[in-house]
Amino acid sequence: MxxxxxxxxxxxxIFLFLLTVSVSAQSSRPNIxxxxxxxxGPELSCYGEKVLQxxxxxxxxxxxxxxxxxxxxxxxxxxxxxxxxxxxxxxxxGQTGLATHKYHMYPGIKTLPVFLQNAGYRTGIIGKIHVxxxxxxxxxxxxxxNANFARKNMMEYIRQSQKFMNASDSPFFLMVNxxxxxxxxxxxxxxxPAKPIDGKDLKTTLSFVGTKSDRLLNYTADYYNxxxxxxxxxxxxxxxxxxxxxxxxxxxxxxGDHGAQFSRxxxxxxxxxxxxxxxxxxxxxxxxxxxxxxxxxxxxLLPTIMDFASKPVTExxxxxxxxxxxxxxxxxxxxxxxxxxxxxxxxxxxxxxxGIRNHRYKLIHNxxxxxxxxxxxLYARHFNEHFYGGTEEPxxxxxxxxxxxxxxxxxxxxxxxxYDLDNDPAEWNDLAEKPEMQQVLRELKKALQQWQKxxxxxxxxxxxxxxxxxxxxxxxxxxxxxGYQKNKEFEWKFTERFEExxxxxxxxx
Length: 509
Fold this sequence. Notes:
Elements: H1 2-28, E1 31-37, H2 55-62, E2 64-71, H3 77-86, H4 90-93, H5 112-118, E3 122-126, E4 141-143, H6 156-165, E5 172-177, H7 214-243, E6 250-256, H8 271-274, E7 275-281, E8 290-292, E9 296-297, H9 301-308, H10 323-326, E10 338-342, E11 353-357, E12 361-366, H11 374-380, H12 393-396, H13 401-411, E13 416-420, H14 438-455, H15 462-478, H16 494-508
Parallel strand pairs: 1-5, 1-6, 2-8, 2-9, 3-4, 3-5
Antiparallel strand pairs: 2-7, 6-7, 10-11, 11-12, 12-13
Helix pairs in contact: 6-7
């Protein structure tokens, strides 16, 4: 009895000690803020863009690592974000098209907020989720649950961020989704930027567009204005982090979800759609003011975040942690190849492609060679005015021959395209038919096939690819102009077949 009596007095002390240790360990873990901007490539001054100024993101780059070869998995919003949330390629998680068009993840896919909550983190998101089903992406705090393409009450993003950060001293993850530079482009919103750029200030448009006109220059100017406004909001968010006393223990990650909405950009497998800005900075990053040229992907974000959260991912995912790069130690998992995919995201936009690159060359595999790519005319004729940044055919008449050939290739794609990104970063000159490039072509074909095998890409199966194409063609006929969006009973049939194919591969591992 005496033994038990002594321990009854000691137990609360022991419990208090363990609780103190637990709280101390918890508070020592970093806060993590993930900033995602819309529809923009690396058009920032820290990436060498000379027309606009992005001082706040430039400063973040000085305080951390700027990645020069960062890529999204798919140049469209929902699939790209699904990869951020899962560490998987869209064909692995199921979100192969837009959430607003009834595409959705496979059941039971574990997502970033769940990983973080299991690690003891508070989780918050400002802005849209845009991945289905949202019930599988259960943030503790969600504000401004819409796209806000009208750019109204922009400071509310900062106020809601402050509210979440100040709610507790426990470690947190906060994702902030700014609406710029998504269409419609807005020259100035709520006084931002203070001195908008005008088309008359520009001599050219984005490098991968290849031609210019007064219309395109004005559109480009408003794209740059959107980028400057986004940067200013980032600066206000950084100030809010500092005011909340969180700066010294916060990792900040900034990226664009995919490239800009110009021809050969968004919804393509070209660099203009797939290449994105990625900056990781703050006091926790030891490798300060550095530039990294490794091939990195948005699938690497989840494992990086969980590494900093002190609970590395044990589930099989496609990405790997970039923490070694941030800590200036050798990265044992440097990629030799990086792969991308793009199916189009809706029935009308459907044109399936796959891509892969090494440190110099890039291969694009068009899965419907010779068939007209619908995205060409969607951009050239400004479908519902959503593609106003597209290049009109008259604007191509004054373009160099290489540019006009590239647009024709985009319009009627061959089975394979091959580009030398060192010497031709805008991908004007297709090398796939060059005799001296056949060894490179074979190497990248083999690497692409290996990636498709390892990730269980359903489109590597000819029967699944044919069924997928047939379904999309039938839906286009039955539901012109995306009429299925208003049909509550409509469901994509391919999703179940794709899921079975992916899960069957996992069962064999």
